[in-house]
TrEMBL record, chain A:
It is a multi-pass membrane protein. This is Leucine/isoleucine/valine transporter permease subunit. One of its GO terms (molecular function) is branched-chain amino acid transmembrane transporter activity. GO terms for cellular component: plasma membrane. The chain crosses the membrane at residues 34-64, 85-107, 113-133, 165-185, 216-241, 253-275, 287-310. It is found in: Cell membrane. Pfam families: BPD_transp_2. It comes from the Bacteria. Keywords: Cell membrane, Membrane, Transmembrane, Transmembrane helix. It comes from Oceanibacterium hippocampi. Its main location: membrane.
Automatic annotation (TrEMBL), chain B:
Its EC number is 3.6.3.-. It comes from Oceanibacterium hippocampi. It holds the Pfam family ABC_tran. One of its GO terms (molecular function) is ATP binding. This is Autoinducer 2 import ATP-binding protein LsrA. Keywords: ATP-binding, Hydrolase, Nucleotide-binding, Transport. PROSITE patterns: ABC_TRANSPORTER_2. CDD domains: ABC_Mj1267_LivG_branched (cd03219).
Length: 326, 250
């Protein structure tokens, strides 16, 4: 029997919401950073866990979002006003569009499946990283520094947000909204069909579903969420570099999501928080050997608990309308 | 009555091999027909062409008066042709109710991702659908764990739920027990009688063909050899020699 675990899910969000009461400013800033990675992890959880598409280059979309925000707010895009709102819109639209077009190209006809899709996305991320390194207008190897903080209003009345507490609250709100949106999508009939396509693509196509368009649309949603996380990253760190587009971050997010549990959004979110926190502690203590520990942990998890360490705890029951035998 | 399905002079070549050699076949609206023939006679190729899995080399396929020759499977499915595969094709990782939800969403012609975001139908809608299909006891069971006969029934009921007007059933009783076969015959009769759905069946099991009691189309070497009632077919010496093999007691 499935254990109803929604009280636990609510508790996780409640504890996060209450953190400002007990956590100091320094750690609050750190936690905001971790939750940005958590949003990023949820984007991969959606496309991998629900859509069955193992994207090996998810950082491409995170980086596109971060660069879109940085270039916009620094006023480097000709004809585009230097506003954070426009930055957010671009950070959603640009990765979303790139993923949709890439998806249509990859899934049309017989379509790329399994490892081939992973390899192409990995290659795309690596190419994007190389491009960013060599393109001086967007900062080249050094990236872009001094990205303005999130600003509301303009002129004398403008409010700049750089204190840890408001940043924490904004990122927390963003994470919760992303969580609820993706969860709603997963639990809607759309989510059922998406899992159906993951399960048996041919059956879905022979019931009238345009499988390629479905997968491309889901890929675009995941990319837009990753881009959104990238935009938050840019304003929180005030710095973007080609490294956030490429191979290393793509692999990292894969490990967070695999360890947490790809099929459960909250497990993927917490996977990012936990692995990153442990990394902060252990990389001090172990230095480079930390990566070895992480690698061993990853292999153990894949072999012994392929559904992830946290997924069994946070798995939700099926939506009421889908529960059988009631 | 005008035919729901009309196949005219369809041929299909795979390289030098001629799998279909000018097939003509008509299925009147609301009728059931059974296609029999030895392995390799082109039955499955014909289904692949009707459902869009393969384009024909030449010839024409019409569904409900519309030319569907060479269209893709999703488009042909949307027009109302539902295909059951020889190996049961259901969504194995998902529960029976989830399987039905995917079919029900297809019935509303909600194929574009955006149209699927609205609320799901009331739970009782699915419950009624499942009860009507004789699947009520299995609502929460993961499809891959269903007994073979129930899995076949689920696949057929999913196609009915998509509001298909023509069912293509590829060996619906393969691997079934006698009781399951009898239940399938009853199900096919039921679907035809109550919903007016037209059905084309490929089948090897002669007991099943006799039970179904419908016109039988005999295919040989990529063409239709003859068509008639089961009793006429079974007594035709040429067919007995070619297909049933002598001596066979059916």
């Amino acid at each position: 029997m499935r254990r109803p675990s929604s009280p636990l899910t609510v508790a996780v969000w409640a504890v996060l919401a209450l953190c400002p009461l007990v956590v100091d400013d320094w750690n609050l800033g750190l936690l905001a950073q971790l939750m940005i990675y958590g949003i990023f992890a949820m984007s991969l959880s959606f496309i991998w866990g629900q859509g069955g598409l193992l994207c090996f280059g998810q950082a491409l979309f995170f980086g596109l979002g971060a660069y879109a925000m940085a270039l916009t707010t620094k006023g480097l895009l000709p004809g585009v006003p230097a506003s954070a709102l426009v930055g957010f819109l671009l950070a959603l639209a640009l990765p979303g569009t790139v993923a949709f077009l890439l998806g249509l190209a990859l899934f049309r006809g017989r379509g790329l499946v399994g490892p081939y899709f992973g390899i192409v996305t990995l290659a795309a991320a690596v190419i994007a990283e190389r491009l960013a390194v060599n393109w001086n207008y967007i900062g080249g190897f050094n990236g872009l520094l001094d990205i303005p903080p999130l600003t509301f209003g303009s002129g004398d009345g403008a409010i700049e947000i750089f204190e840890p507490l408001p940043i924490f609250l904004i990122v927390f709100g963003a994470a919760l909204v992303v969580y609820l949106l993706l969860l709603g999508l997963e639990r809607s009939p759309f989510g059922t069909v998406l899992r159906g396509i993951r399960d048996n693509e041919m059956r879905a196509a022979f019931m009238g579903y345009d499988v390629a368009r479905y997968k491309a649309a889901s890929f675009a949603v995941a990319a837009a969420v990753a881009g959104f996380a990238g935009a938050l990253f840019a304003i929180q760190f005030a710095f973007v570099s080609p490294a956030i587009l490429g191979f290393a971050l793509s692999t990292e997010v894969l490990i967070w999501v695999a360890l947490g549990g790809k099929e459960v959004l909250l497990a993927a979110f917490l996977g990012a928080l936990v692995v990153k926190s442990v990394e902060n502690v252990l990389s001090d203590a172990l230095g480079q050997y930390w990566l070895l520990v992480l690698g061993i942990l990853f292999i153990l998890s894949v072999v012994l608990l392929p559904r992830g360490l946290l997924a069994p705890v946070f798995r939700l029951r099926l939506p009421r309308g889908l529960r059988g035998g009631g | 009555m005008s035919p729901i399905l009309s196949i005219e002079a369809v041929t299909k070549n795979f390289g030098g091999i001629q799998a279909l050699n000018g097939v003509d076949l008509q299925l009147p609206d609301g009728d059931v027909k059974c296609i029999i023939g030895p392995n390799g006679c082109g039955k499955s190729t014909l289904f692949n062409i009707i459902s869009g899995a393969l384009p024909p080399t030449s010839g024409r396929v019409e569904f409900a008066g519309e030319d569907i020759t060479g269209l893709t499977p999703p488009i042909i499915s949307r027009l109302g042709v539902g295909r059951k595969f020889q190996v049961p094709a259901v969504f194995g990782d998902m529960t029976v109710t989830e399987n039905i939800e995917i079919a029900a969403a297809a019935a509303k012609r909600a194929y574009l991702p955006l149209s699927m975001l609205r609320r799901r139908p009331d739970r009782s809608d699915y419950d009624r659908l499942l009860a009507d299909s004789g699947l009520g006891d299995y609502a929460g069971v993961v499809a891959s764990e269903l007994p073979h006969g129930i899995k076949q029934r689920l696949e057929i009921m999913m196609l009915v739920t998509t509001s298909a007007r023509l069912l293509l059933l590829d060996e619906p009783t393969a691997g079934m027990t006698e009781a399951e076969t009898a239940a399938t015959v009853a199900l096919i009769r039921d679907i035809r009688a109550n919903l007016g759905v037209s059905i084309l069946v490929i089948e090897h099991d002669m007991a099943f063909v006799r039970e179904l009691d419908c016109p039988v189309v005999v295919m040989m070497k990529g063409a239709v050899l003859t068509e008639g009632a089961y009793d006429d077919i079974k007594d035709d010496p040429e067919i007995r020699r070619a297909y049933l093999g002598e001596p066979v007691a059916c």
